[in-house]
Amino acid sequence: MLRSWEVELGASVLRAARNAALGVPALKWENKALSKGDLPEDLLVNRNLVLIYLLPKIFAKLDFRMSSFNSSLWQYGKGDLGKLNRNTTLPGTEYYWQFKTSDFDQSITVKKALRSTLNTNVNLLSKIGSTEGITDERWGKLRSFAADATVRNKEKASWSVGTPDYRNAVTSPAIYLGYTAWNTADFLVNGEMPNRSDAYGAMGPFATRSYLHADIKKYSGDETIYVKPKRVGVRIWDSYDFNNNDWVGSLVGFLASGRASQFLGSWLNPADASAIVLQNADFIEFRNKFMPRYNQFLEEKRSGLPRLQCKDFYSFSEYVEKEITAPDEYALLK
After folding, report:
1. C-alpha–C-alpha distance, residues 266 and 248, integer Å
2. 171-193 pLDDT per residue, tens
């Protein structure tokens, strides 16, 4: 059964979703950035796809710096801040971009997400040795590391081993504590409408991931294995793709256009008052149909312009951290 506050939250999200779809003024765009001959005639028919093609320029004109850059990264694999990096150990796609948290200083949602996740994990450290902490999967990887360290040092009466520092790994830092999802609903509740947020335009729904750096210890005459937390780190982790896995975003899209696909902004062309609602389905069609035809067009022209790539990639931030200066140690394994 839903509790009263969950019902109230759900109602507020639905109201905000309706307002985002119907009550927020559309972002303005003009196709003046498109010159005659830039696209073949057959690609001019679908205005949604033409708009996607122009997004890096349009976002830049709207001063949505990171939205412009990320859309350029997806389209061409590069932008004004750099190019995609590669790491073949990444699951799903081998491409990624690391950004600064200051890139989204204007986003209330991003700031709250980082602060809330960091504070939650720091406050939970004292629960490691408790009855509930023993079964909490948050500490699962920490327990596994401690168990392995115990086997490696079984001949020693006392020992101390540091966990691998999460700062030193790009893809699977140790010790991973888990993630928190931040969806369209969180942006809406914070009053950050998708049409007016550079963070939403650049990432959409995202996650915060948490990590721990600590020392694992055993003392002579005591079989208990202890952990001394040293630092907690949190970073944003986002997949820049176009999958429909956010129900509120899909609801906004349905209210705005009748298609149950992730809402990615409504756009108004002041030149002819035409309106467009972009959704995940449009970007999928852009990759499957627009990209090969456009690249063929450039080949036929023998153009030196960059070809479209439309590569999904991971986007993650630098760490926001808290040094743990308290001398407290907690029983991890007994």
Report:
1. 16
2. 889 899 999 999 888 998 999 98
